[in-house]
């Protein structure tokens, strides 16, 4: 019985430590550590300040009492480092909140910044898509050659384009927006 209780308490302690490790102020040893922490993140079960980024409102009829109720994703669907250099990284994380009325997808573009020996979240942007054909993706859309003029050096900022697919069942559309980093913040790029 003592072994069971000790094992249970150790498991509870480790799971609460894991939940606390994925937060806005948490330090990460590397970009890969951030990606692994994100993949194991459970927004609905966590008390993390990042859980709200993986939340969407339930859609339905206005008389439905569930309409507008926040729905948190249970797990993370995917996570990938889109771009990284020695001081910054762009990481895209996607989740599927279990909404009842229609399919929902939420994605978050994280900007990580290296400070000393650890990486921290510097900025983030949330994206949401709903409908039968809902989807969100991120793609590095800036490229440079090799040598001193490489992506992330002065004058050659990375550009990531987020694409959202919305709707379905007779009416669907795609939207996209591009982002870069300036002064350790994400900046949306508009057409000039």
Main sheet summary:
4 strands, antiparallel
What is the CA–CA distance across the termini?
69 Å
Number of helices: 2
Domain unit count: 1
Q: Round the Cα radius of gyration to an integer and report it.
A: 19 Å
Coarse structural class = alpha+beta
Can you write the helix and strand succession as a string? HHEEEEEEEEEE
User: What percent of residues are in strands?
Assistant: 35-45%
Helix content range of the residues, please? 10-25%
In round numbers, the mean pLDDT is 85
What overall form do the CA principal axes indicate?
globular
Strand order of the largest sheet: 3-4-5-6
Low-confidence stretches: 1-20
The count of β-strands is 10
Give a quick summary of the entry.
The protein has 192 residues and is an alpha+beta fold. It is built from two helices and ten strands.
Please tell me about this protein's structure.
Keywords: Signal. There is one protein chain. It contains two helices and ten strands; from the N terminus they run H-H-E-E-E-E-E-E-E-E-E-E. It has one domain. Helix content is 15%, strand content 42%. It has a four-stranded antiparallel beta sheet, covered by helices on one side. The chain has a four-stranded antiparallel beta sheet with strand order 7-8-9-10, with no helix packed on it. Strands 1-2 form a two-stranded antiparallel ribbon. By secondary structure, it is an alpha+beta fold. The radius of gyration is 19 Å and the shape is globular.
């Amino acid at each position: 019985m003592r072994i069971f209780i000790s094992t249970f308490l150790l498991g509870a302690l480790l799971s609460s430590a894991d939940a606390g490790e994925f937060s806005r102020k948490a330090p990460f040893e590397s970009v890969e550590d951030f990606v692994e922490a994100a993949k194991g993140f459970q927004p609905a079960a966590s008390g993390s300040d990042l859980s709200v980024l993986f939340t969407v409102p339930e859609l339905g009829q206005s008389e439905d009492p569930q309409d507008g109720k926040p729905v948190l994703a249970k797990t993370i669907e995917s996570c990938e480092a889109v771009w990284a250099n020695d001081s910054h990284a762009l990481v895209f994380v996607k989740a599927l909140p279990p909404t009842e009325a229609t399919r929902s997808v939420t994605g978050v573009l994280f900007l990580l910044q290296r400070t000393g020996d650890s990486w921290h979240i510097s900025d983030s942007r949330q994206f949401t898509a709903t409908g039968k054909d809902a989807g969100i993706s991120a793609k590095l859309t800036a490229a440079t050659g090799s040598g001193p003029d490489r992506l992330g050096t002065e004058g050659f900022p990375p550009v990531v384009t987020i694409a959202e697919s919305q709707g379905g069942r007779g009416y669907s559309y795609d939207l996209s927006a591009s982002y870069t980093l300036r002064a350790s913040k994400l900046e949306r790029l508009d057409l000039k």
